[in-house]
Amino acid sequence: MNQHQPNQVRPDLRALFLGFSSVGLSGFGGVLPFARRMLVDQRGWMSAEEFNAQLGLCQFLPGPNVVNLAVLVGKRYRGLAGAIVAPVGLLAGPIAIVLLLAMLYDAYGSLPVAQSMLRGVAAVGAGLLFAMAWRMGMAIRDKAAFLPFAALVVFGIAWLRWPMLWVMLAGLLLSGGLAYWRLGRR
Amino acid sequence: MSLIVDLFREFAILSFVAFGGATALLPEMHRVVVENHQWLDDTTFTHLYAIAQAAPGPNVLVVTLIGWHVGGLGGALAATLAMCLPMSVLIYLLIDRWESFAGKRWQRAISIGVAPLAVGLVFSGATLISQAANLGLAAWLLLVATVLANLKTRLHPLWFIGVGALLGLLGLV
């Protein structure tokens, strides 16, 4: 059991900024695993249970999960200032890098050699997305009941090109409704 | 200036449906920035996605790149801020109440219910990128190989991106 340790580290603003900077700069295609490693394993700012609970809220709400997580952790230790400093630390470095790449793209992106390189990366990127969807699907506990909703979303969004807001609202009503009903039956 | 405001507004609206993060938002982003506003074309959209994949940082950075392409530095910051700010404020205000709801039936139902929708969104994003990228046969093979290798091995995704870039450079895909 991981109890709330009385001597748990209480990071200051600088530590929050640096800690989340390291998270932002170490992950490729999703940094959540790195956030977990930093918060729980390396710096001991929260226990694994606390991390899961906070992440639950971040995944429940829309928006970039890891940014939301940074806001929560920042608020928890340093109030409003922390809630601003932590996500800024998370994003500042990666934004600088990505803007540098954007300038390179503006300057050289139209060259045939850059075009073919990006085509290769895009193919891999799409592959990584398919793999991610597969993994997320396999993590769903009751596949027979809930994966059909994933298929409905694909049908509505990718095939019919319906606006996402309505697809999500309808989907949440159906899929969340089913979950609610099944939770009550148990 | 009005372009920056448009960017901010569109991405702020998008942020409210970003269940599953920015990755799940790709189809809707495409609809808004490519189809509705025609701020960029299919090829540029896939390129910006590819660049975001090749850079370190959270997935939300594809938004920064789109903002940059549409409105320069101001556009990049406006789009990123619009994507992050509304939910950050909400979560800042909600966290204390949320913890008192922990384990409630409706809360668990929504968590369970959102998961398959996010799967569908990410899958849709993957089909969209692969269609928009206008891939040839070799690129499709690379895509399938990436899916299998990513699922079967624990190799860092950067390796796949490097291989993709290299095969592209050599003109093989």
Instruction: State the distance separating the first and last CA atoms of chain A.
Output: 27 Å
Could you tell me the number of beta strands of chain B?
0
Low-confidence stretches of chain B: none
Q: What is the number of helical segments of chain B per DSSP (H or I, 4+ residues)?
A: 8
Structural class of the secondary elements of chain A?
mainly alpha
Structural class of chain B: mainly alpha
Helix content of chain B: over 70%
Residue runs with pLDDT of under 50 for 5 or more positions of chain A:
none
Task: Please report the total strand number of chain A as a whole number.
Answer: 0
Beta fraction of chain B: under 5%
- Strand count, sense and closure of the main sheet of chain B? none
Question: Given the C-alpha coordinates, what overall shape of chain B results?
Answer: globular
Mean pLDDT of chain B comes to 91
The major beta sheet of chain A can be summarized as: none
SSE string of chain B:
HHHHHHHH
Coarse morphology of chain A: flat
Which percent bin holds the helix content of chain A?
Answer: over 70%
Q: State which percent range the strand residues of chain A make up.
A: under 5%
